[in-house]
Design goal:
Blueprint: E1 6-11, H1 16-25, E2 31-34, H2 44-53, E3 56-59, H3 63-71, E4 79-82, E5 94-95, H4 104-109, E6 113-115, H5 119-133, E7 144-150, H6 155-163, E8 175-177, H7 187-194, E9 201-207, E10 213-220, H8 230-240, E11 247-249, H9 252-256, E12 272-279, E13 284-291, H10 295-309
Parallel strand pairs: 1-2, 1-3, 3-4, 4-6, 5-6, 7-9, 11-12
Antiparallel strand pairs: 7-10, 8-9, 10-13, 12-13
């Protein structure tokens, strides 16, 4: 509904992502935010009424609850943007990373079912997909992803663990690795949307800071079947995101001037910055994505997708 009030309902508004989506859209003149009486949050009939009354529904729920919510929607005009992992590789759902290819924004615009990407996959796909598409990384490449996120990526439970000293499990750890079983829930979407033939080896970590993330993909250039240089990778990324508002690629000069990267460097924005750090002598590169796990990695991306679906300025509220 362009030019009028678009009805939006956030199912799961009390969670971290839901609160940030609400913060980004409340007060907008083109949005009417439908809200459920807190006493009826678990009332299925009231939720169903609101789900079907909305033009856009944001689902900020665990996987099973998201599946239940989708089953309650019978209005063919209601579009869903789901923040869970329930539908990220499901048939009939469009992956909500508009910059993923030059035609993908059109796919998002035409869809009624959008799966909002995970934060780690956003960085991974942003770095790797253009290089696979350009033939610089083979589809059978054994990809490794090293990443660190602020503790807000773990939701309310982890936020409480790090911030509330009165809790029994209060953590004072400065940094920790996790997903040590090598079965993280983001791996399927990483593989599918990078275009790789094999599951990447994903090594995530959490740091003692609230939000912001770095995703790194190291590549031994000497192992590739054809000659690939850091400049070729940087040029391929720059070409893929030319003209994009929210995904940008650091120039060679900008990259060379950096001695380190702050994971909080683009916090409270919907930006993602990509870097190619290379050493031609050793034939090695470190591909790095910097983003806010609660911005382009969650609520910002969700609002961006809503704007596209409604035919609005893509940056509205961002």
């Amino acid at each position: 509904m362009v030019g009028g009030m678009n009805k939006v309902f956030i199912d799961g508004e009390a969670g971290t992502t839901g609160l940030l989506i609400r913060e980004r859209i409340e007060g907008r003149r083109d949005i009417e935010l439908l809200q459920i009486d807190p006493a009826k949050r678990k009332d299925v009939s009231e939720r169903k009424r609101l789900l079907n009354a909305a033009d856009i529904v944001f689902l900020c729920l665990p996987d099973d609850a998201a599946k239940e919510a989708v089953s309650l929607i019978d209005n063919p005009e209601t579009a869903v943007i789901d923040g869970s992992t329930a539908f990220r590789v499901a048939d009939g759902w469009t992956y909500g990373f508009p910059e993923m290819s030059r035609t993908h924004r059109d796919a998002v615009r035409a869809s009624k079912r959008i799966s909002n990407p995970g934060c780690y996959p956003t960085g991974t796909i942003g770095l790797v997909r253009p290089l696979v598409d350009a033939g610089l990384l083979p589809k059978d490449f054994p990809l490794t992803i090293n990443a660190v996120s602020g503790y807000s990526g773990g939701g309310k439970g982890m936020i409480t663990e790090f911030e509330d000293a009165s809790t029994e499990n209060h953590s004072k750890q400065p940094f920790r690795l996790y997903a040590l079983t090598l079965a993280h829930k983001h791996v399927p979407e990483m593989q599918q949307y990078t275009g790789l033939n094999h599951k990447p080896l994903f090594s995530p970590a959490v740091g003692r800071y609230k939000q912001g993330m770095l995703v790194e993909v190291p590549v031994q250039l000497w192992s590739l079947p054809t000659k690939v240089t850091p400049a070729m990778m940087r040029d391929a990324l720059a070409a893929a995101y030319e003209g994009e508002r929210f995904v940008t690629v650091a120039t060679e000069a900008e990259t060379a001037a950096l001695g380190n990267i702050d994971p909080e460097g683009v916090n409270h924005t919907n930006q993602m910055k990509l870097y190619v750090f290379g050493n031609e002598a050793t034939e090695q590169v470190r591909l790095v994505a910097l983003l806010d796990n609660l911005g382009k990695g969650a609520s910002g991306a969700a609002v961006q997708n809503m704007n596209i679906l409604l035919g609005l300025d893509e940056g509205a509220g961002l």
